Amino acid sequence: MKKSVILGAATVAGLAASAAVAGTVDDVKARGTLNCGVTTGLVGFAAPDANGEWQGFDVSLCRAVAAAVLGDASAVEFVPTTGKTRFTALASGEIDMLARNTTWTFSRDVDLKFEFIGVNYYDGQGFMVPKALGVSSAKELDGATVCIQTGTTTELNLADFFRANNISYEPVPIETNAEAQQQYLAGACDVYTTDASGLAATRATFENPDEHVLLPEIISKEPLGPLVRHGDHEWGDVVRWTLNALVSAEELGVTSANIDELSAGTDNPEVNRLLGTEGTLGEMLGLDANWAANAIKAGGNYGEVFAKNIGEETPIGLARGLNAQWTDGGLLYSPPFR
Ligand SMILES: N[C@@H](CCC(=O)N[C@@H](CS)C(=O)NCC(=O)O)C(=O)O
């Protein structure tokens, strides 16, 4: 069944109620590709490379889900979405899942009727300014012009922060990160504010990144994660446990280098259940026994995906911080595979 709907004047909330809510696993299998909503471009998270191939931390999750469901990490149709269009794209059925640095909030979950299936990056909102502005705290930004992406939590947090600190600002609304970058570098705004990871990713693409600083304040919690439509629990389970598989694989020491060897069977029962040599977890999800092994092979475990796309060895240079495993003092904690 074709699920694209005529958008008309319907609100996102109205669409959420009318869109098909079940059967996404079967739809994806029948179609043979996963329609995955991503950003319009944020290097390190989701952006096409020189060959037009989408790469990045969020892109890797799309590929892992495609590998789990279809056995083919390349069977993904990437659908670029902006801060504003992302929710309509998901609610209408144009995409099967959204993997686009999207913050899990009460109203998106409850009111827009989506289901956040986990957190793949714990973040918070920060500020970037040119060094030449001579500012060392966000509280010194009274009267500043601020580039701000519409349809985001960023917009709302910014208003709260300035009001709480009794200072004023002039918003410069923008639709995409590319536009923000261009406006900010052209001096159309004094400040760019978004998720701290987004600021690091954006600054990494500047010709002179050293001329820009991230201010010390982190003014919000931005738990970023993939989401699906409310009501399709089987599909939610598939996406949720694919993310958990990548996280568990790191905790259990399963990597893209040793996975073939471990897939022959190990003396760790949880590794065996994860990789499908013991138990029937794949069958419970309606997938092949090696669904999780395929997901891990797509781009490596969570730690490998992080290191390759956004980690300290990349120009983006993000530390694991809150995104370390719980065993290393971070917040990553997958429920058990049993
Ligand atoms: N996490 C926030 C902000 C997400 C957001 O849209 N961030 C921007 C700035 S990093 C982005 O991803 N832009 C990519 C694009 O323009 O496509 C939210 O969920 O509202």
Strand residue content: 15-25%
Distance between the termini: 34 Å
CA-atom Rg in angstroms: 20 Å
**Sequence of strands across the biggest β-sheet:** 10-9-11-8-12
Compute the number of strand runs.
Answer: 14
Shape descriptor: globular
Helix coverage percent? 25-40%
The kinds of small molecule bound in this structure are: glutathione
Secondary structure class reads alpha/beta
Strand and helix order:
HHEEEHEHEHEEEEHEHEHEEEHHHHHH
Number of helices: 14
Biggest sheet details = 5 strands, mixed
Q: Mean pLDDT, nearest integer?
A: 94
| Low-confidence parts | 1-18
Helices and strands, with pairings:
Layout: H1 12-18, H2 24-31, E1 34-38, E2 47-48, E3 54-55, H3 57-70, E4 76-80, H4 86-91, E5 97-98, H5 106-110, E6 114-116, E7 121-123, E8 125-130, E9 144-149, H6 153-164, E10 169-174, H7 177-185, E11 191-195, H8 196-204, E12 212-214, E13 222-224, E14 227-229, H9 233-252, H10 259-262, H11 269-275, H12 281-285, H13 291-299, H14 302-309
Parallel strand pairs: 1-4, 1-5, 9-10, 9-11
Antiparallel strand pairs: 2-3, 6-14, 7-13, 8-11, 8-12
This protein binds glutathione.
